[in-house]
Structure formats: structure tokens, C-alpha cells
Amino acid sequence: MIVIIPFWMHDRLEEEKVGERESFCPTCDRPVTFSVVRMRRKRMLFSVINVSTRDLGTFLVCPSCGGTYPARE
Ligand SMILES: [Zn+2]
Prior knowledge:
mainly beta, 4-stranded antiparallel beta sheet, 0% helix, binds zinc ion
């Protein structure tokens, strides 16, 4: 599926660090302290007006390899 976004509209990904969690990283193959990051996608009009915000959920970001994994609550 192709989604065409007009040039005056663009999506901005917002990350907010909400904490840290010890977990096992499958890429690094060792336990690491993940950053717990909450992600939201904001659709902006002319870069200033927020048209819509979609909550993408909480993710664990590995500080070592940069891998992002969905957080299981
Ligand atoms: Zn890793």
C-alpha cells in the first residue's frame, strides 16, 4: 500500500524516555540496561499545527546495538 502525504503534512516521531529496564538483548546476546521509550507519531501541518497523534506504545531501546523491541508490560 502506498500512502501519499502532501508536502505540507509530515509525520514526526516523538520519543520520550520513561525509564530503564534490565533485560536480555537477543542481538547483543547478553543482558543490558534498556531505555524504556514511549513513542508517539505526530502528524504536523506546516510543521506547527498538530493534526493527529498516534500512540505507538512502549519500546525497549538497547544502548549497545540500538535495537528496538516492543516492551511487554
Ligand atoms: Zn543490543
